[in-house]
Amino acid sequence: MLSLTVSADPEGFRDGGNVQVDQVLFISKGRKRNQILVHTFEKTYYMIGTLRHWENYLNSNGFKFLNVDRSNTLNVENVKIVNGIFRDAYFECEITKTSKRCPISYHRFDEVVEEMGFMNSKILITGAANK
């Protein structure tokens, strides 16, 4: 299984390690240039690069990552529910206040949901998307 070398420290000075790609919920742009945040259920990690680079790399290695807005790329295999009202993807079947969520672009929502459905037919779409 492919893993990513990450750091728990935003500066990359300590707490380095590896995260299995199938544990990644989504990746997002960091606050600094070329900083990427790797979101898992347990923690958020840091690595270097661009969102586009990592999306292309992961997809070319057999994974299903989809850019859902300017700042976020989902691991579609880990999405359980998409909320059509708030336009968020969730990674658990039962949503709570502490559930991790990934926002989906308002303007590309229908297109993204359709593409996600092709990539993972088990995703549950809830709520009507009001335009």
What does this structure look like?
- The chain is of the alpha+beta class and 131 residues long.
- The chain has one domain: LytTr DNA-binding domain (OB fold (Dihydrolipoamide Acetyltransferase, E2P)).
- Helices cover 16% and strands 34% of the residues.
- The protein has two helices and eleven strands; from the N terminus they run βββββαβββββαβ.
- The strands form three sheets. It has a five-stranded antiparallel beta sheet, with helices on both faces. The protein has a four-stranded mixed beta sheet with strand order 10-9-8-11, with no helix packed on it. A two-stranded antiparallel sheet has the order 1-2.
- Strand 1 and strand 2 form a beta hairpin.
- The radius of gyration is 14 Å and the shape is globular.
- The N and C termini lie far apart (41 Å).
- 24% of the residues are buried.
